[in-house]
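Before relying on records like the one below, remember that each one covers exactly one chain. Contacts with other chains, cofactors or solvent are not represented anywhere in the record.
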Amino acid sequence: MPVPSAEHPCWQRLASGALTRMKTQHLGTQLMIKRLERSTDAPAAKAREIHAFFSKWERALPHEVQQLSTL
């Protein structure tokens, strides 16, 4: 499953807190989730960062990418 486009509504949901429900064993993803959880950045900035992360690591994180649209 490919990473949804940057305009997909899932990114705003993830940036608004749904990312904490992601099931992952990948340390880099866990660290990003915790860092964004504590961040005071605007949701739009968080959404861009999340999209960039998963676009870059799409091939290494197939299970996480599969969850993006359902969280």
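The mean pLDDT is 96.
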